[in-house]
Amino acid sequence: MSGYDRLSGLDASFLVLERIETPMHIGSLAILEGRAFFDERGRFRLADVRRLVSSRLHLIPRFRKRVMEVPLGLGRPVWVDDARFDVGYHVRLTALPAPGSRAQLLALFERVQAQLLDRSRPLWELWFVEGLEGGQVALFQKTHHALVDGISGVDVATVLFDFSPEPTVPDAPEWEPTPAPSPQQLLVDTVVEEVGQVTHLGRMVADAVQVPQRALAQLGQLGRSMATLAEGRLLAPRLSINRPVGRHRRFLGVQVPLDDVKAVRGVYGGTINDVVLAGVAGGLARLLDARGELRPDLRVKVMCPVSVRADQEHLALGNRVSALVVPLAVGATDPVSRLASVRAATEDLKERHQAVAADTLIGLTQYAAPTLLGLAARAAHHQVFFNLISTNVPGPQVPLYCMGAQMVEAYPMVPLSRNLGLGIAILSYCGNLHIGLLADRDAFPDLDVLATGIAEAFTEMRDHAEAHGIDEPAPDADAATTDAAAATIDLVVEVDVEVDTAP
Q1: How far is residue 139's CA from residue 130's CA, in Å, rounded to a whole number?
Q2: What global pTM score does this model have?
Q3: Which CATH number covers residue 365?
Q4: Which of 65, 142, 387, 477 is most open to solvent, judged by the fewest CB atoms within 10 Å of its CB?
């Protein structure tokens, strides 16, 4: 087993889910100050950028690994060193015709993100874009979901960026790829491992039988937690945002000041995450109303990934997530009612440990046969239990720098699934909540309505809070970090009044 490590069941499922219409990589669009990227002749310092990235890859070794399939599909794939690794393939430079507008930048980002990553190579790419108006530089990031989840994605970003304007290029150790196993050896190792997992599962059952009272208590708690996944209206309402997606995408970014979110929480209570979800609900209400689908009793069901990554797993790649499914009362007539509904729902789900139940179900994929895992992953493409995904990742609240250039904006992106035509990703950075909206292009010609609606919803909540006499935001202990150990969702927001729209 030396020389490679096996994908978890959850990580492998993202490979099975992937189709040409549904790339399964996460990504981001960052805007950086441009001057530091150019030499005295005005040429982009691409070689220096590649040297910087290369000097830090030993901190994230899986970024030099590729996927190797098990013969006959008899087990989950493994990560092996890519003997032909070339940083020049992964760190790229492109340009807009200067001065490139924000609309042109978004159109380029949409085209780049619609393309699949090459599975014969490590599953990540960095695209630098020059030619932007104002002399700025953009950075597109693509990393397969099998490689990272949102939290570990931020860990990777902090490795590739600096916390000061002075860039550091450490003396990286010499890298020698470990030879990949032969297909025959990998097949033998896989069979042995699968037998071992069955034995381990048998021991778990035997232990439960030997201590029946403890096992029954644990099963009872798990049963109550899992019941939250199926209570109320089991199926999500069928809406226009849930038709099968095509190959083309639209992307928009929204910014919201974090202080506005704290002010709302200071008046109405709850968590930062509750306020964020209420803002998302307000934007969805405006979109659905414009489409003639809004009704007073409508509740849109949103799946919120929850990090269960422990502190000691910092920089450990792969997915360590569970989920909460939260109903959003988009049909509520005012923002205070929407927020109260979100707050009540999340408090109830957390008390009954829905995320723990979901994590348990996800954990069972470790014991699933590859054929069953593939069937389950494909079924997820057609799930009818939630309408969209909204994920939040708390980022650093201090500036980040690349090559001495400060990052001024950073919009995250989550992939779409077969019948989920909208994904909302949120990253808090430097006192702002950056909200990235990715949508199927054909299903969302009106994505700007949602973007404007989200910005207006946060403004509306802030205005209500100010009317109740709050002048300063309440102290916030969870603005920059997430309580991963408690498995709660702690969305951190930043919204800007101006919303850029693609043509």
Answers
A1: 9
A2: 0.80
A3: 3.30.559.30
A4: 477
Tell whether 254 is covered by a domain.
yes
Sequential DSSP letters for 451-469? HHHHHHHHHHHHHHHHHTT
Q: Which tokens belong to 261? A: 């979110």
Q: Please tell me the total count of domains within the chain.
A: 2
Residue from 429, 421, 411, 433 nearest 277 by CA: 433
Read off the pLDDT of residues 362-420 as tens digits, 9 standing for 90 and up.
344 444 444 444 444 455 556 678 899 998 888 888 999 999 999 999 999 999 988 89
d(CA 248, CA 502): 14
pLDDT value at residue 498: 33
- CA-CA distance, 10 to 383, in Å (whole number)? 16
Q: What is the pLDDT of residue 30?
A: 95
Q: Which residues are annotated as catalytic?
A: 145
Q: How far is CA 458 from CA 82, 154, 284, 437, in A?
A: 46, 25, 12, 16
* Same domain, yes or no: 296 and 387: yes
Tens of pLDDT, residue by residue over 430-444, are 999 999 999 999 999
Task: Tell me which residue has tokens 């209400």.
Answer: 285
Question: Which among 160, 189, 204 is the end of a domain?
Answer: 160
| Structural domain harbouring 414 | 240-486
Residue 40: how many other CB atoms lie within 10 Å: 5
Is residue 261 domain-shared with residue 130, that is, in the same domain?
A: no
Of 391, 401, 399, which Cα lies nearest the Cα of 493?
A: 391
